[in-house]
Structures are given as structure tokens and as C-alpha cells.
């Protein structure tokens, strides 16, 4: 599998805002928070053109009550990841067989929630690390991958190092 990294596209922000509005309308939950995460949320950073969305719930016990509302927006719910990540619900959307969106639904204030926001915010405000991350992604994109998760795993060391910076 070949990974394609595109130059930053300001339309990614607009695409997120459109989905955010749809999700806010579909999920009736007090205190619901929806964030744009991942590389498409960082101005100036190249990325796979998949909009990563994180939905934060005050009470994660309500997560399963929202599955059909999200599926009604064209998302596919993947329960298979719950064995290793029971604190997250994962969805994806495709157009013409190509992934365009991912949703990670978690509880607000959890380690997963905080880690993703801190990493995004760090890259937004630290150009040197943003450029290093982009260079790593471009280098890794030159490889052939059996699974998309293998590419993601190859970035983990860099991501964990940044997370350590943001926690100190």
C-alpha cells in the first residue's frame, strides 16, 4: 500500500467545519465537544487527505446510543478496535471507495483526548517540530506498506517524543 501525502490544503478546515455542524446537529448530548485533530488540522503540514475528528463526551457511557446517528451521516462504525481500545468508538467515511474522514469518539479529559489535542497544538505552534514531522511522513510515504496501521506505527516514536515535551 502506498501512502500519499498531500500539501496542506485550507479546504481541510472547511471540510471539518461542515462535518462538525452535521455531527452537532445529529448527536444530542449535553457538553458535546468536537475537535479537528491529526495532520489535516495543522496549517502548513502535509497530510493524507483524511479529516480526523475527535468527539468528546462528558459521559462515555452514552457512546453507544449515538452510533446510529453517526452512521446516518454516512459513516461506517468499526467495532473491531474496541477489544484493544474499549474507551473509543471508531468510524470512517468514504467517497468513491476512498477514505475521507475518521471519527474517534472518546470521553472528554481522558488520556486519549488530551494526548491528541496536545500533539496537534504543539505542531500548530512549533514550526521546527512541524517541519520535522512532515519530513518523517514524506520519508515513510516512500515505503510500501502492507497496512495503513504499519505506516501509523512507524510514526509513533516521533509522536511519543513530542507528547513527552508537551507534558513537561
From TrEMBL:
Task: Kindly give the InterPro entries that the UniProt entry links to this protein.
Answer: GrpB/CoaE, NT_sf
Annotated Pfam families: GrpB (PF04229)
Which residues does UniProt call coiled coil? none
Q: What is this protein called?
A: GrpB family protein
Give the species: Rapidithrix thailandica
Amino acid at each position: 500500500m502506498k501512502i500519499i501525502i498531500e500539501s496542506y490544503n485550507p479546504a481541510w478546515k472547511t471540510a471539518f467545519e461542515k462535518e462538525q455542524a452535521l455531527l452537532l446537529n445529529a448527536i444530542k448530548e449535553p457538553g458535546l465537544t468536537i475537535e479537528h485533530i491529526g495532520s489535516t488540522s495543522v496549517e502548513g503540514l502535509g497530510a493524507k487527505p483524511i479529516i480526523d475528528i475527535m468527539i468528546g463526551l462528558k459521559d462515555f457511557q452514552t457512546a453507544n446510543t449515538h452510533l446510529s446517528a453517526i452512521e446516518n451521516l454516512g459513516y461506517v462504525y468499526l467495532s473491531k478496535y474496541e477489544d484493544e481500545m474499549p474507551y473509543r468508538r471508531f468510524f470512517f467515511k468514504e467517497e468513491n471507495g476512498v477514505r475521507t474522514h475518521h471519527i474517534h469518539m472518546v470521553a472528554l479529559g481522558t488520556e486519549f483526548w488530551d494526548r491528541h489535542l496536545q500533539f496537534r497544538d504543539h505542531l500548530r505552534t512549533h514550526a521546527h517540530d512541524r517541519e520535522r514531522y512532515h519530513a518523517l511522513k514524506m520519508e515513510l510515504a516512500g515505503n510500501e506498506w502492507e497496512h495503513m496501521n504499519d505506516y501509523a506505527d512507524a510514526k509513533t516514536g516521533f509522536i511519543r517524543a513530542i507528547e513527552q515535551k508537551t507534558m513537561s
